[in-house]
From TrEMBL:
Species: Ramlibacter pinisoli
Domain of life assignment: Bacteria
UniProt entry tagged with the keyword Signal: yes
Keywords tagged on the record: Signal
Protein name: Tripartite tricarboxylate transporter substrate binding protein
Family statement: Belongs to the UPF0065 (bug) family.
CDD domains in UniProt: PBP2_Bug27
Leader sequence segment: 1-17
Pfam family, one: TctC
Amino acid sequence: MPWIASQTFLGALRAMAIVTASFLASNASGQSWPQDKPIRIVVPYPPGGSTDTVTRLIATHLGPRINRAVVVENIPGGSGNIGTNRVVRSPPDGHTLVTAAIPLTTNPAFFKDIPFDVLRDLAPVTMVTTQPYVVVLNPSVPARTLLQLLALAKAQPGKLTFASHSAGGATHLAGEWLKLLAGVDILHVPYKGQAPALADLLAGHVSMMFDNVSTAIQYGPTGKVRPLASTGPRRSPLLFNGTLPTISEVKGLESFQMMTWLGYMAPAGTPDAVIEAISAEINAVVALPDVTRRLNEMGFDVAASSPQAFAEHVRAELANWSRIVKDAGLKAD
């Protein structure tokens, strides 16, 4: 699966910042950005999570750069669809953005009642971060490597279980993808959120799960979970100094490469020059040393991108998750 490396675009950020001034003055339609009003960023998830934290970090630094108030508003619900739909219906003037995350591309593959079309109704601005998931195992399961886990699953079909944060979410589809590629039968147990799923993993009520980097870092060294592999395209230096293998290192699983990501989108119809101006400013923010350091501390890689590269990534993700849902025969309850 295509992903956007953190270093690819950072070298171009200074050049992008130079041209920002011309975008701020005007665009082809004669509309200026920013206008004399606040920028609103909608986080379509509850306060306090990593998506909210990253958005507020960026907003804190973006405001002074553009000399405008940047307001973060949480509108949770519907796996991110409610808040996103609010942005879809906002004026396409560059003053309302949504923090986009991987559910924006997994939801359409699994659910059929989404009130907007990602490709038609949203304009990608920039990706800002990527992060792998980690396969974490309850230590009672007698496997110390991913190969041993898969061998155990093949020997005992349907006995092992994997938790997910939600049915149809990224941690669910990741498990189904692994099952497809490895040819194993592991029972899916969906939860309503990461916290209850992790609680049952720690208690030994489920065998494994795909979870956030923070879970592996916090509970791996104490032995409460056993991290087996990450989903990224290469080993991450943020995970045990690069010693944790990737799933794609296993023969037959080379195509399994998955990164959770965060980015920003605007309503469709927002002028291209405005999109470019916003992208340049946000990319300049995430390139600030203090911001990059804080993101790394949270387990994120900086992945600043152009609007075009982000759009290509979203299209590829939508196609990939749709294929996986179809191949696995998944349907929403």
